[in-house]
Write a structure and sequence with these properties.
2 copies of one chain form a homodimer. By secondary structure, chain A is mostly helical. Helices cover about 70% and strands about 0% of the residues of chain A. Chain A binds a DNA duplex through helix 3.
Amino acid sequence: MRKDLITDAAIKLVAAQGMRGLTHRAVDREAGLPEGSTSAYFRTRKALIEGFVARLAEQERLDVAPDPDDVAGSIARTLDSWLVERDRTLARYAAMLEATHHPELKSIMAHSPREQATALAELLGHEDPERAGAHFTAFLEGLLFYRLVGGGSTVGPTPGTEESVRDLTAAVEKALRP
Amino acid sequence: MRKDLITDAAIKLVAAQGMRGLTHRAVDREAGLPEGSTSAYFRTRKALIEGFVARLAEQERLDVAPDPDDVAGSIARTLDSWLVERDRTLARYAAMLEATHHPELKSIMAHSPREQATALAELLGHEDPERAGAHFTAFLEGLLFYRLVGGGSTVGPTPGTEESVRDLTAAVEKALRP
DNA sequence: CATCCTCCTCTACAGATGTAGAAGACTCTA
DNA sequence: TAGAGTCTTCTACATCTGTAGAGGAGGATG
């Protein structure tokens, strides 16, 4: 479908050049479509942004639910896969920042790992699951951010390798401890 | 000095509208200066970006070095103050994302809390200070991000209150445990 | 007072951008 | 096969943006 071609190109563009690179014509070029295509599918820029954010959210719904027999390991592997899919994750950060001054984006994203993390924390016997879940989520979010755009991007192990997964597993395990 | 007026206005703009809102003329308006002023001080857009990032880095150099008698508490208070100064912190995130496709920005920011965190982790007796320091930094970064732009922005305690500092202190204490 | 220098303001212009509508190509049904 | 409805491409245009340079105001210096 043309629409997915367009939103996927938009994601790549945002990852590579930031929100500023997201223009109707640039998306046309990136997707290899004739000029005007993007503008036809997403008349306004706001619609274009909402389109690519919806696409991100849609693709993310696949990667959920940790394996109960290997909680830390499965979470670590998910994190590592997000590091490997750099473009999507970078685009997601740009979208989150955008949502700060464009609130309707929040409801589109709403993949809300928070309740999940709370449930997990409860399961593992924290005394204040609400707070522990929030902190746990924050920790994961931070791990990812630090490795992808923060200081860790120049230092840590290469994403996609066994070593990366080991490093992440150790971090997640520690965060899971009550 | 006119230059600081301009960079401060740029920071406000970026916080409020994202990188896309950062144009020479918009900065003129925000700063209440006649049209053309920003363009005179920062001829190119790249120069303007580097200017406001340098200003951010300059202002951040003030908030360092935790009190050794109350490590968790002092770190928590610093974090809380960053939450209160929402604009500056949001602008910093935008800048970090920008640095992803504009590497010379990294050397301008380079406040590198990493070595500091490593030293801290060593002090507190972690067996692998390098890694522990990285994880600790990631955790702080994540806590901040989660509270300011992530899911936690709609949930957690109000920044600047005692409750916020308490919540952050608990989180930092946990992260500091070996 | 004349001169120089720095800081500031104004104006110009080529190119990019958001948005809309007209017209053509294509597809499916009756 | 004719027609209706949708999908796609092209073109237009007002506005915004980056960037450059000309010239003025004002103050310090000789």
